């Protein structure tokens, strides 16, 4: 077990190295740099000033050396300072992390809360109206582009029906929890809608298999009620394979959250990332990359360990 | 004379097949079972043995199988008239069932003790400690060594034979009056088969319950049943005591089933087989259903279903069984 965990962490660190290196390389290939963005057309800076600023940011060095410096600093615990805001990257991210976690956490919670039962019911009676309805819903969820859903929802629920605010986390001067929830509903519902389709399909598939098993007959033969048979024996046993599928989905959810955050002006790290890319703010982009990659990798390891708790036949070597 | 525990009259089970018309899979089956007796139900795959038993315990495949007619009188009450909730109180308490594959009939994610406690708690109010004691006692009874340890283990830590013993123990926790054993030994190896069958017989005698033993193996029936019901394509073709059936089989199908048992006391080159296949559901011939595979069939067999021919309790559905029968020239 300890050995398994050790190996997993080692491989996660290796993954992290490659992810950051590749992203750093891609960033160096994008047109323009932080300087061109900051200085507009560059007309206010003389050639000498521009050169000095370039040198100050270290942009005159070759990309591999810049990455090496960044990596060295990170290993020392220093994420660098944002080109744009001039403050330490860690501070900027810390400010935004909570609101992202709230949004993504709510979305994941509801994806589970809604996706699991709907998938179970679909598998319980395959081909039924309920099954087909949920199939359609699932398909719509994972095939509708997120930005379209966002715009459509804002149009319908904010401008036409005036039910939910189209922007931000709070109304100005109102810091109440109720106001926060009111702002949270639409963006989190949109992420849930996108993620739930996959969840429903996976749950349905895993349950269809389990529902054929003899131990469900045994459970019925004991005199258990259908609800107990379906959830205590059916879903509980299907949970392990469903969980594996969820691992695949975590990066998807995080990615779609970035778009939703941007459109809704949600002050999270997803929209921070998109702004940072527009500003060519390399240290900030790298910082956010590091955070998102860590969250995904840690989630994967945790889900992997949870698999062992859910299925006693699994042993870690 | 022991009293009758179960009396099934004219039981008909239909299956829904999507958009097509429902088919009759069990057609007018009748039999009775006394307390303490074992009834062997024999036949090929798909002849309706399991559906008959499932109808008795109320476990027909959900949404596809339903009882289309007949009565199931169990301890004087008609089970076909009971609601789903009332049937739940019968299942596991008065009628229990064990299945063919012990590898998959226990839930892999729960400990043996948890699964047994669950079976107990559905029908009785017991504390966790009492449940553990009762379960351990029952495991000891079915011949599982170190029951307290086994209770903490998961199904995958046990062998196939042990799992079937656990299934038996679990099904007997509430002291049922009827145990349905659906091919309980078909997936076990031969030495274990005999042990499991001996165990079921011993427990039947000790606890005074009745057993419905479903099998496709005439050899299993010979050593374990009091009554035998031979089924073919959803119908009973012959019914009688085990002595009658084996010494005087009247139906050509029964005769061929007995002929296919391997024997040590006779030197035969090949085991006899029955040519052909069971007619598919929904395409049953209007006459005798065994007709197409029967070497003795006559024109009348193809036209009309065979009438029952009785000698005492022994019933057979074959024209040729009647010594007065003369095939038309």
Report on the architecture of this protein:
The complex is a heterodimer of chains A (317) and B (329). Helices cover 77% and strands 0% of the residues of chain A. Chain A is mostly helical. Chain A has a domain at 96-279: Orthogonal Bundle (MetI-like fold), CATH 1.10.3720. The longest helix of chain A is centred in the last third of the chain and has 39 residues, at 226-264. The mean pLDDT of chain A is 88. Chain B has 329 residues and is α/β, with parallel strands linked by helices. Chain B has one domain: 3-Layer(aba) Sandwich (Rossmann fold), CATH 3.40.50. Chain B is 31% helix and 24% strand. Chain B is built from eleven helices and twelve strands. Chain B has an eight-stranded mixed sheet with strand order 6-7-8-3-9-10-12-11, with helices on both faces. In chain B, α3 packs parallel to α6 and α4 (128-141) crosses α6. The radius of gyration of chain B is 21 Å and the shape is globular. Classes of the chains: A mainly alpha (317), B alpha/beta (329). Chains A and B meet through α9 and α10 of A and α2, α3 and α6 of B.
Short description:
The complex is a heterodimer of chains A (317) and B (329). With 317 residues, chain A is mainly alpha-helical.
Characteristics:
A: 317 residues, mainly alpha, 0% strand, globular, B: 329 residues, alpha/beta, Rossmann fold, 31% helix
CATH topology of chain B: Rossmann fold
Low-confidence stretches of chain A: none
Describe the biggest sheet of chain B?
8 strands, mixed
Described by its quaternary structure, the protein is heterodimer
E-strand count of chain A: 0
What is the name of the CATH topology of the domain at 96-279 in chain A?
MetI-like fold
CATH class of the domain at 96-279 in chain A: Mainly Alpha
Largest interface: A-B, 22 and 31 residues
Give the count of helical stretches of chain B: 11
Distance between the termini of chain B: 47 Å
> Which series of helices and strands of chain B comes N to C?
EEEHEEHEHHHHEHEHEEHHHEE
Helicity range of chain A: over 70%
Q: How helix-rich are the residues of chain B, as a percent range? A: 25-40%
N-to-C CA distance of chain A: 6 Å
| SSE series of chain A | HHHHHHHHHHHH
Radius of gyration of chain A: 24 Å
């Amino acid at each position: 077990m300890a050995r398994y965990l050790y190996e997993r962490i080692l491989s996660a660190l290796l993954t992290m190295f490659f992810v950051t290196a590749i992203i750093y390389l891609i960033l160096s290939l994008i047109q323009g740099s932080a300087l061109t963005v900051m200085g507009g057309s560059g007309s206010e800076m003389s050639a000498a000033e521009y050169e000095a600023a370039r040198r100050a940011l270290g942009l005159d060095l070759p990309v591999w050396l810049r990455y090496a410096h960044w990596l060295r600093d990170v290993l020392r615990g220093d994420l660098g300072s944002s080109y744009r805001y001039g403050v330490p990257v860690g501070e900027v991210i810390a400010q935004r992390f909570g609101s992202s976690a709230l949004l993504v956490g709510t979305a994941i919670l509801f994806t589970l809360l809604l996706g699991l039962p709907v998938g179970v019911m679909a598998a319980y009676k395959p081909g039924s109206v309920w099954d087909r309805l949920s199939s359609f819903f699932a398909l719509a969820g994972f095939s509708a582009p997120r930005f379209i859903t966002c715009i459509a929802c804002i149009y319908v629920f904010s401008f036409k029906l005036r039910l939910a605010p189209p922007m931000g986390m709070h109304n100005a001067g109102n810091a109440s929890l109720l106001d926060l929830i009111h702002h949270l509903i639409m963006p989190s519902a949109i992420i849930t809608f996108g993620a739930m389709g996959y969840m429903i399909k996976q749950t349905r598939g895993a349950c269809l298999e389990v529902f054929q098993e003899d131990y469900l007959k045994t459970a019925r033969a004991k005199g258990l009620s259908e609800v107990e048979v379906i959830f205590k024996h059916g879903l509980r046993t299907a949970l392990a394979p469903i969980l594996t599928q969820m691992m695949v989905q975590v990066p998807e959810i995080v990615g779609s959250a970035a778009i939703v955050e941007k459109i809704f002006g949600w002050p999270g790290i997803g929209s921070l990332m998109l702004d940072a890319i527009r500003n060519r703010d390399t240290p900030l982009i790298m910082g956010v990359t590091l955070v998102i990659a860590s969250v995904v990798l840690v989630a994967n390891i945790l889900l992997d360990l949870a698999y062992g708790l859910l299925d006693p036949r699994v042993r870690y070597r | 004379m022991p009293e009758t525990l179960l009396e099934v009259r004219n039981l008909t089970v239909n299956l829904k097949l999507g958009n097509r018309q429902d088919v009759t899979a069990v057609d007018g089956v009748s039999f009775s079972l006394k307390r303490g007796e074992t009834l062997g139900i024999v036949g090929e795959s798909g002849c309706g043995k399991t559906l008959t038993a499932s109808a008795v315990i109320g476990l027909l495949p959900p949404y596809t199988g339903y009882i289309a007619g007949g009565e199931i009188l169990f301890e004087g009450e008609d089970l076909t008239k009971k609601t789903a909730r009332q049937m739940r109180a019968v299942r596991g308490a008065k009628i229990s069932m064990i299945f063919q594959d012990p590898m998959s009939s226990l839930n892999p994610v729960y400990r043996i003790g948890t699964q047994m406690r669950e079976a107990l708690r559905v029908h009785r109010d017991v504390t966790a400690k009492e449940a553990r004691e009762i379960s351990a006692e029952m495991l000891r009874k079915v011949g599982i060594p170190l029951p307290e340890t086994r209770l903490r283990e998961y199904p995958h830590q046990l062998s196939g034979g042990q799992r079937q013993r656990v299934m038996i123990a679990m099904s007997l926790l509430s002291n049922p009056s009827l145990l349905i054993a659906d091919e309980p030994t078909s997936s076990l190896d031969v030495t274990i088969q005999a042990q499991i069958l001996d165990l079921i017989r011993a427990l039947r005698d000790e606890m005074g319950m009745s057993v419905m033993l479903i099998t496709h193996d005439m050899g299993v029936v010979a050593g374990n049943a009091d009554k035998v019901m031979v089924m073919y394509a959803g119908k009973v073709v012959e019914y009688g005591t085990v002595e009658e059936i084996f010494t005087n089989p009247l139906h050509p199908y029964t005769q061929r089933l007995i002929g296919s048992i391997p024997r040590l006391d006779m030197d035969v080159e090949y085991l006899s087989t029955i040519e052909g296949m069971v007619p598919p559901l929904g395409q049953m011939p209007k006459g005798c259903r065994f007709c197409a595979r029967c070497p003795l069939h006559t024109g009348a067999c193809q036209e009309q279903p065979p009438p029952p021919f009785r000698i005492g309790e022994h019933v057979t559905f074959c024209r040729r069984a009647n010594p007065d029968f003369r095939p038309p020239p």
